[in-house]
Amino acid sequence: MKQKVVNLIEIGIQDIYGISLPDTECYIEIPSNIELGDFSLPCFTLAKMLKKSPKIIAEELCTHLKDNNNDSMISDVKAVNGYLNIFIDRIYFINQIIADVFNVSYGSSDIGSGKTICMDYSSPNIAKNFHVGHLRTTLIGNSFSKIYSKLGYKVVRINHLGDWGTQFGKLIVAYKKWSNKKMVEENGIEELLRIYIQFGHEAEKSPALNDEARDWFAKMENGDEEALSIWQWFKDISLIEYERVYTMLNIEFDSYVGESFYMDKVPALVSELKDKKLLVESQGANIISLDEYGMSPCLITKKDGSSIYHSRDIAAALYRKQTYNFEKCIYVTGMEQKLHFSQVFKAIELMGYEWANDLYHIPYGLVSMDGEKLSTRKGNIIYAEDILNEAVSRALNAIQEKNPDLKDKINTAKKIGIGAVIFHDLSNQLIRDVHFKWDDVLNFDGMTAPYIQYTYARSKSILRKSHIDNTDVDLTYLTDDISYELVKKLALYPDIVKDAAVKFEPCIIARYAYTLSNLFNKFYHECRILSADDQIRKSRIVLVNAVQKVISDSMSLLGIECPEEM
Ligand code: ARG
Prior knowledge:
The structure is a single chain. This protein has 21 helices and twelve strands. The chain is α/β, with parallel strands linked by helices. The protein folds into three domains: 2-88, 2-Layer Sandwich (Gyrase A, domain 2); 116-364, HUPs (Rossmann fold), CATH 3.40.50.620; 384-558, Orthogonal Bundle (Isoleucyl-tRNA Synthetase, Domain 1), CATH 1.10.730. The strands form four sheets. Strands 5-4-9-10 form a four-stranded parallel β-sheet, with helices on both faces. A three-stranded antiparallel β-sheet has the order 1-3-2. It has a three-stranded antiparallel β-sheet with strand order 6-7-8. The chain is flat, with a radius of gyration of 28 Å. The protein starts with a helix and ends in an 8-residue tail after the last helix. 40% of the residues are buried. The chain binds arginine. Arginine (ARG) binds at residues 120, 123-125, 160, 162, 313, 316, 331, 333.
C-alpha cells in the first residue's frame, strides 16, 4: 500500500513540476496521530529543489491528487503547514493489510535477492568455555541471519572458531605434563581449562615452559602429526560442548571454518602485502603501519614467522570475498574487538580492495549478573549453558504455579525460559550493557518474551474456541478505533524488518513485537470477541488470527518460539 501511495505522489510531482523526487519512499512518514492521516509527505525537500514554499507545494499536490483520485484507496487528502496528509479508506486499508498478512511471505522482501551476506558470529575459542559473551554474539548473529534471509538474502552463517594460536602449544605441553587421556575424556573442556590455568601458574615459576609451548605451536604450523592430532582431539571435545548450547538454541551454521583454515593462506597474504609495499619489518615481526590513521600497527606475522589473529582475519575476508562474493560481511563480537576490526578493515582497504567498505563490525555491550546466582558450577565465569538451564527450570516452576494442568510442560518451559534469555539480550540496543536479573528476564508482565508469548497463547486459545479457520470474511465490521489501530500496527511490520536490518538492531523487532502485543491486549480487554454479534465476531477473529501470525513471525526473527498454550 505504501508503494501505491509513493507511486501516486511520484506521478503527481511529475505531472505538476516535471521532476522526480529521488527516493520518495524515504520521505514518506507514518504520522503517529491518526488525525494527520495514514501517510504524510513533508514537502521541505521538494521546496528546496523547486525554490518554492513547502506550503504551496503541499496545496498544489493536494489539489492534484484530489482531482485525479479515481482509486477507492484514498478517502481524503489535506495540505497542512507544508505537509501533504493522505487518508486511506479504512475498509480498503483493512482488507488490503489483512490479505497481505495472510500471504505466506508477509514481511519478506526481495531486496536481497541474488545477494549474499556472510555472517560471522558465535566463534568461541576452542578449549575455552562458552560463556555469556559468546551467547550474545550467537543470539545476535542468529537473529541477523534470520532477518536477512527474510529479506531475500542468501546468508552464509559462519562460525569462525578460535582454533589456532599459541594457546594450543601451551595446552599440549600442559596435557603432556599434568593430564592424561582419561581425565580429558571424563571432564571435557573443564579439564582443558584446568590445565590451561595450571600452565599459567607453572610458567610464572619456570618461563622455559613458554619456549616449549612455542615449539609445539611451531610444530602445529609445520604440520607435525602428533601435535595436530592432539589439537584435533581438543577441538572435537570442545565442539561437543558447544553443540549442546546450539541445540538448545536451535541454531545451525553453514560453516565451521575457523582460524586454523587460514593459517596456510597467510604466506600468500604476506607476499601480496610485500608487492603492494605495505609490509614493514619491526623487531623481526611483519606489520602494516597504521600510524597515519591514528591506530596501532596491524601485526601480520610474528618474529618466528607464525600467523596471528589479525592476519588470519585478513586472509579469511579475502577468502570469503572470493568464495561467496558477499555484498556484506558482518562480524558480531564484543566491543573490545573494535580496534582489531578497524585495523583489519583498514589493511584490506590499503590493499586496494574497495569492498573493504562492505565489512561491518557490529559490537555489543557486556553482560553482567551482579548479585544473581546460578545453581551450578563455581567460579566467576558465567556459562551460557548454565544460564539456559536455569532459565528453563525457573520457567518450569512458574508453569507449575500458574498452570499446573498444562499438557506439555517441559517443552513449554524450554520455549519460555530460552525465549526469555534471548529476548532479554536482544530487546535493547546492542551496544548497551545487559544486566541480568531473573525477575526481569522471566517477568510475565513487561517488555519480556514471556509477556509476548503469553499474548500469543491467548490469541491461539481464542482461535481454538472460535472454530473459524477461513480468513475470507467480510471485514467491513472492523470499524472501531482499536481494531483499526491494530491493523495499522500490522501494516508496519515489513518496514520494521527492513529497519532492523539496515540499522543492525534486532531490538527494533523486539520492541515491535512488544507494542503489537500490548495493543492486542488492549483490544482483547476492550472489545468483545467470541461473544460479539456474528459478523463482528467473525471479523474480529480474523484480526486475532492476523495478529498471532505476526507476533510469532516477529519472534521467530529473534530466534524465539512461541508455545501454543502456556
Ligand atoms: N574467537 C573470537 C573470540 O572469541 C571471536 C572471533 C570473531 N570473528 C572473527 N572473524 N575475528 O573473541
